[in-house]
Amino acid sequence: MMDFFIAKNHNTPVEAPAPEMEMLTLPFPKEDGEHTNGVVETKKKKKPKATPKQPTPEPEIFTGFNYLPMELLLKVMKQISVDDRLACGQTCHRWMEAAHYYLPFSDRIIYRFTNVNFTDYEPPIKSFLGAFRIFPRIAIKACTFYGNSQFWPLFGEHVIELTIKNCLIKDTELLYILEHVPNLRQLKIEQCDELFRSWYFEKRQSCCESHFVLPDLLDVSLTNNDFLDELHFNKLMTLAPNIAHLDLSNCFKMIASHRRVAMVEHIMRFINMHQFQLHTLKFNGTLAIDDICLSTLSMIEGLSLETFSMTFCDKIPAAIIDLLRRQPDLNITQDLEWKVGRHPIKAPGFISFLVRQTNLVHLDLTSSLGITDEVMELITTCLPKLKTLKLRRCILVTDEGIMNIVNLVNLEVLDLSNCYRISDHAMYRGVIGRKVKNLHELYLCELPTLSDYSLIQVTLNYEMLQVLDLSNSPNAATDATMQYVNYYLVSLKQLHLYCCTKLTDSGLTGIDLPVKPMITWDQEETFPLDRLFKLRVLNLIGCYRITDLSLENAFKLAELKELHLARCYQISEKGIAVLSQVATALEFIDLSECPLVNDNCIEMLTANLKRLRTLKVNKCPQLTNACLEIIGRNCSYLKYLHMIDCRRVRKPRERLANHRSLKAVYVEW
User: Fold this and answer.
1) Tens digits of per-residue pLDDT, 111-170?
2) C-alpha angle 379/380/386, rounded to 5°?
């Protein structure tokens, strides 16, 4: 750590003038001497008097935050979020330089173009052509491309990540863009079925020919594309000879089954050809990725994955499950078989794949109906390096299946949502334990069988949690457990309590608790929600017992960015008046279906929340046309306004059509 200080310069003392020296009389005459009584007297030469030096002026000391050393300024900005840093950049030129031009900061900024015409003759692209900065990360969503834009020859050299989602774009325009981004590292083409429907090749061999390649392109995502065929796939893969990460989630749903099978077989051949360089494969929701495909993957010896995701719905035979129960230590041979007696038994593809891929770090099996307790035992035994395990909606997993999750000592992200067969006993014995020390994200949504006991144990063992999701788990999120959360989980950044209907003001504020859960030296203590000073996202949708008391006493959250209060029917003008004063960093607020929200609430929110970007007030019956005038007058950064089914508000789109910052006004579902 470097210390910075300013030293005071004192005035330099004035040097004293040199004393005049008198010449002594000499016994011998000098040429120009005078004789007086035989003694020669010399003339005294007068030296010019030394003029006193002027005191050195004291150097000017610059004070103020705009003169902080750049090293200290960068260190401060590293501790805050991107939105806060961009807001700091508006302070002065020096802070703008630190916020925008420091390379690690600029690399994290994504420039998004949504619902615009991508052409050189219309804004915003017309304005961007004269820009002096670079755009390393670009996301284009729901845009229409008109011809080849000069934006790419000007700025494409610096683009390293490009996302094209749900856009109307031709194949020639896409290839023109890719040709001018030679340093591209990540490419995402999502929901672009119109592109692949209209993309034809004159010759079948032309799909594998290209006069340019992207040697740095490692990550390719083609999710949600139903009409992607072999020729399109070959063309895009030819441009990325060094591909390491491939995402084909939710593809091939709207095509015939034989075409789907042929496409999957083609992908398997591609994986076999690039087995030594692929590290990530994602097939979530992609049909035809079955046990046969997993058998093919397990036979590829050079394939060593770090990230894998799929939806596995095949049923493992009952004989295999019975064999695993009787002999859990049985090893699989090189021929993917179990040697049991005289006749070997062929191992299922999914089990063979898990046994071979021992280096997996991230495993996502969301909505996999084929995951059973025996498979879970293999996962916890064969994959010791796992950091991410997602089992959302794996409904066949029971207490026995998660009993050994505690052995995954490197686990950081765990999702057990919708596994409704899990009970408190399994959570305490199998999930909660001192071996897992680095758990940062825990998702326990829609688990009605969990009680507050499990959540209390979570707070006592995982104090470093940053994300906690208890949505639709009403028996786990109570007033007592909220006191434990407020006290122990001070590192939380996201807290989701969607439809936790047992939660009241007492749990959030600590006021009027019937039983105080914390007792220190015979002193009962309570803790409000604002003890979670790092909290940035708070979801309280459907917690209808919360009133203005919570807003007045528990929401002094300086870093809170996103707040959901929809269907909190008792919130009124009194509580919002305090909220708008203490949570001034809010950028997203949802007050939908709050019947007591009126025009005065909008006035207070828009006047005090200067950084508000999204405001949702759907189905608020007391709002009138006056709130539109308030929004137009106070909101200088508002981008999205949701006013669906506000019956007393007339034509909000037309009235706010000239608002400079507003991008969209939603008045219909």
Assistant:
1) 999 999 999 999 999 999 998 888 999 999 999 999 999 999 999 999 999 999 999 999
2) 85
Task: Give, to the nearest 10 degrees, the angle between helix 291-298 and helix 349-356.
Answer: 30
Torsion sign across C-alpha atoms 530, 531, 535, 538: negative
Cα separation, 439 vs 228, in Å, equals 38
Peptide bond into 124 cis (omega under 30): yes
Q: Where are the alpha helices (DSSP H) in 476-625?
A: 479-488, 505-509, 548-553, 573-582, 599-608
Could you give phi then psi for residue 375, rounded to 5 degrees? Answer: -65, -40
> What Cα–Cα distance (Å) separates residue 157 from each residue in 178, 179, 256, 470, 557?
10, 10, 40, 45, 42
Q: What does 384-419 look like in DSSP terms, one character per residue?
A: TT-SEEE-TT-TT--TTTTTTGGG-TT--EEE-TT-
Angular region, 427: left φ>0, alpha ψ -120 to 50, beta rest: alpha
* Total number of domains in the chain: 1
Give the orientation angle of helix 257-273 with respect to helix 230-239, to 10 degrees: 20
What are 244-261's pLDDT values in tens digits? 999 999 999 989 989 999
Residue 90 forms part of a structural domain: yes
In a domain, 610, yes or no: no
Q: Give the residue among 409, 355, 359, 348 at the shortest CA–CA distance from 377.
A: 355
- Is 514 domain-assigned? no
Which residue, chain included where needed, has tokens 């009389």? Answer: 25
For 79, the domain range is: 66-109
Tokens found for residue 575: 């509580």
| Residue 402 burial by Cβ neighbours in a 10 Å radius (0-12, 13-18, 19+) | buried
Report how far apart, in Å, the C-alpha atoms of 279 and of each of 267, 297, 659 are.
Answer: 15, 13, 47
Of the listed ranges 161-175, 305-319, 629-643, the least confidently predicted one is 305-319
List residues bridging with 469 in a β-sheet.
Answer: 443, 496
What amino acid occupies position 71? E
Whole-angstrom Cα distance, residue 546 to residue 542? 9
Gap between the Cα atoms of 379 and 430, Å rounded: 14
Longest Cα–Cα distance of the chain, Å, equals 147
Query: DSSP secondary structure string, 212-274?
Result: ---TT--EEE-TT-SS--HHHHHHHHHH-TT--EEE-TT-S-SS-HHHHHHHHHHHHHHHHHT
d(CA 588, CA 614): 5
> How many Cβ atoms sit within 10 Å of the Cβ of residue 85?
21
Is 478 contained in some domain? no
153: closest CA among 128, 170, 121, 171? 128
Please check whether residue 511 is in contact with residue 549, taking contact to mean a CB–CB distance below 8 angstroms.
Answer: yes
> 447-504 pLDDT, tens per residue?
988 999 999 999 988 989 999 999 999 899 999 999 999 999 999 999 999 999 999 9
